[in-house]
Design brief:
six-stranded parallel β-sheet; 13 strands; about 45% helix; binds uridine-5'-diphosphate
Amino acid sequence: ERRRHDAPHVALLAFPFGTHAAPLYSLARALAAAAPGAAFSFLNSARSNASLARSAAAAGQAPDNLRVYDVTDGCPTGYELPADDPEEKVRLFLGVTPGNFLVAMAAAEDGGGRKVSCLVSDAFLWIAGKMAEEMGVPWVPLWTGGPASLAAHLHTDLLRLTIGAGKQAIPARADQHLNFVPGLSYLRVRDLPEGVVFGNLNSEFSRLLHRMADELPRAAAVALNTFAGLDPALDAEFSAQFNTSLPVGPLNLVAPIPAGPDRHACLPWLDSQAPASVAYVSFGTVISPPPAELAELAAGLEASGAPFLWSLKDEWRARLPAGFLDRTGSRGLVVPWVPQVDVLGHVASGAFVTHCGWNSVVESLAGGVPMVCRPFLGDQRINARVVSQVWEVGVGFEGGALTCGGVKEALDLVLRTEEGKRMRERAGELRKKAVRAVGPGGSSVQNFKALVGIVTGN
Ligand code: UDP
């Protein structure tokens, strides 16, 4: 029997892959700061917690009422994850879920002496909804991606029914617009994430997201890393589908976690560049373009003549074309990690060559920087379409892949033409809207207050 008058204890359950845990951790910090009388326990794999701790250390001490706990990730000690199967670690993790979270939650309850009174989780972890139901407490999932991809997942059944599913569905219909799905008519079948109508419908992710779509409408509230008005049609759609829809973003503006020290001196280097002149290149933490594309990109950067800052992991550096670093050293900086939020907020950044992971898109928007989009998988194609077709603050590539000529042309367009200037102005307008949403009396601030009320039971 739950003691009703216990002080609230909110457990936050992270999905520890890609850049999923970071926005949930931002939210945890913001919630803990807003509700000092409540306890917050952040449950995440040791590996993901360690990488968050590195950047969080730079953000200063976390609020006292926020504690971090490790959960086992299901990966046996000494087991070498197969390089050709990126889903294996996800399968292992989900194989020990929810047991791993229950163990950590028990430790968190023992540690603070307070029963957990609410579960906040990454929306991917629909199982948290079931756990919450059993515990008799509210569940509040956070969707860390963009609104359009969430809408696509919510309508998976409709999409499969209308388009068909499996291998045959695609070639014939790849360019069909999704005008039968509310708010998504600008998307084509080919933009959908794998596992919705094409690709492996039985993959771990496909099943996870399909099930999530069924469970989200049961949540007490759904929090989103976006802001009201960014996609008005979907604001209405989510308000209709969910018990409470709470766009509380952009989280990088609400609760910024600096990306750690500027070890490679990117910011002083940017200081020496002209305003809006630099092409910043990064494909996030998971993806790297295949070697041939990497070479095309390097050639394109060289041909464009623009100054560039490239976040490229050391293991990929060796794949750059021979002599590239020497030839471009005077106007290019290639480093394994950059403080991206600060880079995109720097006045010298003029274009962002990106895979369109949602965190990157939102950070670019918050910096008012137009994008050159090379999406690879998951929600990235949808995000790229939103950037180029709906917001008109970026360009994609004919045929999708990076080519030397395509990169040069895209950078010329964004950095050196009137159209590029207009993109930058539109990006600046979106930036203003985002800043208003998180400013005094802004919609994200109001929604955040409502969220604090829901998770603390007040
Ligand atoms: N990031 C960074 N420095 C880098 C590369 C990436 O700070 O050199 C951060 C970036 O700011 C963003 C995250 O890594 O918050 C990437 O998230 P996104 O959702 O774009 O892509 P994912 O890593 O999930 O593919």
